[in-house]
Amino acid sequence: MQNDAVYGQYPNFRPRRLRSTRALRALIVETELSARHLILPLFVRAGSKLREPVLSMPGVCQLSPDEVVREATLAYEAGVPGVILFGIPERKDAKASGAYARNGIVQRTVRLLKAELPELLVITDVCLCEYMSHGHCGVVEHGAASPRILNDPSLKILARVAVSHAEAGSDLVAPSDMMDGRVRAIRGALDGQGFEDVPIMSYAAKYASAFYGPFRDAAESVPKFGDRRSYQMDAGNTNEAMREVAQDIAEGADIIMVKPALAYLDIVRRVKDQFQYPTAAYAVSGEYSMIKAASERGWVDERAITIESHLAMRRAGADIILTYAARDLAAWLKG
Ligand code: PBG
């Protein structure tokens, strides 16, 4: 009955079982996952030969700059074209001064990576939360009643951070703060300093998500008070994501990102369909750690489930996937 409904419009079609060979299946596969779409996030802190495991993210470490080079080399040799850097400064303050210091941890690491691995795509995350004593992504005004995030004063600092990354040699700056108007502010500052050719990948549709939990351990960026709901998006909203993306494109974003990935594949698809822009999805820390935890218990097949979920992100329309599993995937996809 069901077949009649589906095939009725093709009167000569007879459903039948065809010989299915590996080569034939490969010939007609619609979506492919390969290492060249992947970006590996790395956490960098001062020191040397340092690999500090992040307990909530098995296999992920905070690395000193020399270890970042080692990790990036392995990833690059396995076919992963780029990394995105998150810095953990030695000191935090209320102005996030570590975020734009000429010799800040990210700036130093970018210079080192560019010297050692000139072909590697080095992306830098532009945000203030790791550098602020309070752990928020913008400047906070401590009023009498409750603390408030100050959008516009945050823009000046974010622009300064982006310029300092470009000066160090960053290939692509990626603002993740979600302040309004940051893409325009960053574009203007980069252009003004002679970095017209440095592109921006904006975390355009970034949801306020419980899936970021383990990252905040890794980046030591847990907010000391309140949450990020005043600047990150509500999980129930789709149209708002379209407005955020449209805004970032209008302000000059070159690549747009949806984050988290797996729980927001409908957003990835809608963004891709509507804007036809280079689109990235961030498979965030919670997604990674859930798979790790279940695999450690033997409840799921880590390799199969990691490949399947990343393939789903590609199927949803992601051109680029930022993922902590990039190196594993690169090895598995080759084998
Ligand atoms: C900083 C930032 C966050 C992530 C990337 N950039 C955390 C947050 O917004 O709290 C999360 C990435 C992840 O969970 O893997 N604003």
Which key terms come to mind for this protein?
335 residues, single chain, 12 helices, 12 strands, 40% helix, binds ligand PBG, 17% strand, alpha/beta, TIM Barrel, two-stranded antiparallel sheet
SSE layout and pairings?
Elements: H1 2-7, H2 22-27, E1 38-45, E2 51-53, E3 61-63, H3 65-78, E4 82-88, H4 105-116, E5 121-126, E6 139-141, E7 148-150, H5 151-168, E8 172-175, H6 182-192, E9 201-206, H7 213-218, H8 239-251, E10 255-259, H9 265-275, E11 279-283, H10 285-296, H11 302-316, E12 320-323, H12 326-334
Parallel strand pairs: 1-3, 1-4, 1-12, 4-5, 5-8, 9-10, 10-11, 11-12
Antiparallel strand pairs: 2-3, 6-7
Helix pairs in contact: 3-4, 4-5, 5-6, 8-9, 9-11
Bound molecules: ligand PBG.
Descriptive overview:
It is a single chain. By secondary structure, the chain is of the alpha/beta class. It has a single domain (31-334), classed as TIM Barrel. It has twelve helices and twelve strands. It has helices spanning 2-7, 22-27, 65-78, 105-116, 151-168, 182-192, 213-218, 239-251, 265-275, 285-296, 302-316, 326-334; strands at 38-45, 51-53, 61-63, 82-88, 121-126, 139-141, 148-150, 172-175, 201-206, 255-259, 279-283, 320-323. The strands form two sheets. Strands 1, 2, 3, 4, 5, 8, 9, 10, 11 and 12 form a ten-stranded mixed beta sheet that branches. The protein has a two-stranded antiparallel ribbon with strand order 6-7. α3 crosses α4. The longest helix is centred in the middle third of the chain and has 18 residues, at 151-168. It is globular and about 70 Å long. The two termini are 42 Å apart. The structure holds ligand PBG. Ligand PBG is lined by residues 125, 127, 129, 137, 176-177, 212, 215-216, 228, 284-285. Residues 125, 127, 129, 137, 176-177, 212, 215-216, 228, 284-285 line the site of ligand PBG.
